[in-house]
Amino acid sequence: MSPFVSAPIAAIATAPGRGGVGIVRVSGRDLGAFVRGLFQRDLTPRHAHLLPFRDGDGEVLDEGLALFFPAPHSYTGEDVLELQGHGGPAVLRRVLDLCLRAGADLGMRLAEPGEFTQRAFLNDRIDLAQAEAVADLIEATSDAAARGAMASLSGVFSARVTALADRIVHLRMLVEATLDFPEEEIDFLEKYQARPLLQGLRDELDAILAQTRQGVILREGLHVVLAGRPNVGKSSLLNALAGDEVAIVTPIAGTTRDKVVQEIHIEGVPLHVVDTAGLRETDDPVEKIGIGRTWQEIAKADVILHLVDAGAPDEDMDAGIAEKLPRGVPVVKVVNKIDLEAAGGPGHVPGSAQDALALRSQAGIDGTLRISAKTGAGLDRLRKALLDIAGWNPGGESPWLARERHLRALQDASDHLQLATEHAALDDRVLDLFAEELRLAHDSLGSITGRFTSDDLLGEIFSSFCIGK
């Protein structure tokens, strides 16, 4: 271990700004002498001591609680000292400087972002998926996300992945033993029921994949872009979904010149809804910039809601926009302002087929989503459609929070098990290929918990943490 990694570290562990309580955290090996130097006494492990925090000249910087957690029973697996004092920024900086000066002989330095959690991972206190869940729990913006992050942090996700990896190891052992003794003429695939075992592995992996997809949705959310020509009600729909006046609404075409982003939650799933400038031909240079940004947002969308106006249809213009929307991205055609149809828009005849169509659409019979952002009609169906596109299953088992890299690793493992199944469909002459696919599947699962992880990936993960965690 390099001196930089093994040196003691210190940082303010509470969020920037003023607060009732602030915490300075120190972690390192053999900090007993350091603690005695600070307080001129030993601290009882895992007991709170009310003490003055004095500098080298004896001046009292603050008074608060000091807690000492000897290794290995601490967050990082090393000796950890926590000083809990008043939460003023100036006070915390002085206490942190006190610790850094007192630990200078030990090489104590300011912690990097996420370094406390990284040390917990390196010291086998938690695995990599649990370490990521620490950051996810801090960043959770809904109750569902917080519960999912806590499930990951408690090891639910890791336990499922590890149990599956252990089952793959068992099958690998049987294969390797057969390859080591080729003179024994046995039909390995039949004798050890390798095909049923492999199918059981694939079934379990499919179940884990399904829950992980839910966890990724719960963490990442969906990037939903509202697109359409001017004045079709995009801003009104954003306000209706958000339950607040977050976008300016006027009857003047071209009111929205730039994107407006609002995060909303449906069944705990975060949706990043983007209101955009209306799409049309224009000579206004400012509006042109806004329309260019609209197309940029559309290119990044997970879901596109293409709004059209039920009260003032323009089929040619709407069809032209639809033709330019990217392929491969779910597009939901949303007919807005159905309240104008029912209330008597241009050319309305009471009791006509137009009224019947409005009534049918509000009952959910029509093939397109027809809504009124003004009255709220059809919004529940729109919310459900967005969840359906996300693949959200609120009636299923509660998901753990997961990341895109977890999903990729699981999919890689699934692909390798599929290849192993194809080899198993032949005969024992391809056992070496069968064994190799099992090994690769096992390695893919190991990358989730950190058993097989590159240093570059670790740096990328922990650099996204806040300092002090």
UniProtKB/TrEMBL annotation:
Its cofactor is K(+). Its EC number is 3.6.-.-. Mg(2+) binds at residues 235, 256. GO terms for cellular component: cytosol. Belongs to the TRAFAC class TrmE-Era-EngA-EngB-Septin-like GTPase superfamily. TrmE GTPase family. Exhibits a very high intrinsic GTPase hydrolysis rate. Involved in the addition of a carboxymethylaminomethyl (cmnm) group at the wobble position (U34) of certain tRNAs, forming tRNA-cmnm(5)s(2)U34. This is tRNA modification GTPase MnmE. It comes from Achromobacter aloeverae.
